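Appendix B. Raw example, untouched.
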Amino acid sequence: MNANKPSRRFDSRLIQKPRQQPRLQRTAWGFVTIAFWAFYFYLWAPVLTLISWLVGGRLAWLQLYERKQQLDPFIVIALPVLLIGCAALLILWAEYNRYRFAGKERRTPRVDVALPEIARDLGASDALARQLSGAKAVTLHMDDDARPVGMTEQVLMVRPLAVG
């Protein structure tokens, strides 16, 4: 075997069909992946803490939690009022838009492209363009210049819904 030529043997490190692995093995590797991502985020914690302190996080912590548990009465009253006001504004805006656009089509309808134009753009015959327009799933047969010359319509399998 030539040393410069890459081997075409199966590389077991690459998973080609992960659904064929046992469920226990997939689950175990999922937990390993989550653990390593958690460790990665843990390593970023000092940088996030530094950024937080630089933008005022330390001052906010001191003002809110380390000030001998003092509560400002204005904040106790203002925060719930602001919360209710924001929720009311959002609901009013949504209702206004629902009333404004009810029963109206906001999108302009698309103009259908003529079959001869489709055939010309595909490089196909008019008859093939007519066949394509009426089919749901097809396999196109192409010539050497990548122009469609024929088609085979595929039958779509419809599975009955499971009841129960």
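End of appendix B.
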